[in-house]
Amino acid sequence: MRITILQSDITTRAVDAIVNAANSALLGGGGVDGAIHRAAGPELLAACRKLRDTDLPHGLAPGAAVATSGFRLPARWVIHTVGPNRHAGQTNPALLVSCFSESLRLADSLGAASLAFPAVGGGVYGWHGRHVAEAAYDAVAGFGAAHPVSALELVEFVLFGPEMEQAFKAVFEQPR
Predict the structure, then answer these.
(1) pLDDT digits (tens, 9 = 90+) for 60-109
(2) SUPFAM superfamilies this protein is in (predicted)?
(3) 2-173 topology per CATH
(4) Catalytic one among 9, 33, 55, 108?
(5) Minimal CA–CA distance to 117: which of 152, 146, 93, 149?
């Protein structure tokens, strides 16, 4: 699996699936979540409402992931995951790792060859960039070890600012 780290707009990535740093309601919001909903069009909100009316009446739990179509996005699918909110006392790093792990697992089960992640948890949910990058690294390493044969060929970390990009590069490029 090839990994790239770049500073860009995740809504423009021509990959099979993008990950949405969603809130548990799945009904849109600010930051990456709002940008993805705007770019995907009203069909995404309708699909998320249908999930809430059927499979997820209480919303999506932190660390879990669910997929919808990408609608007007270049990506075929949107994988929604909810990061733990440090400001609300959700400080277990395993939940943050789970966001990345569950998204990877779901992308693989969909047959996606390429996947783009934002810095899940690194915005309004209060996780420091290095912690987000470490969680992402742990998830990718664990996924690769557990799934030596996978449809996933490319994982992109599409980051909003230079500080987050540097945090990811520092973690992913350090010798192990």
Answers:
(1) 999 999 999 999 999 999 999 999 999 999 999 999 999 999 999 999 99
(2) Macro domain-like (SSF52949)
(3) Leucine Aminopeptidase, subunit E; domain 1 (3.40.220)
(4) 33
(5) 152
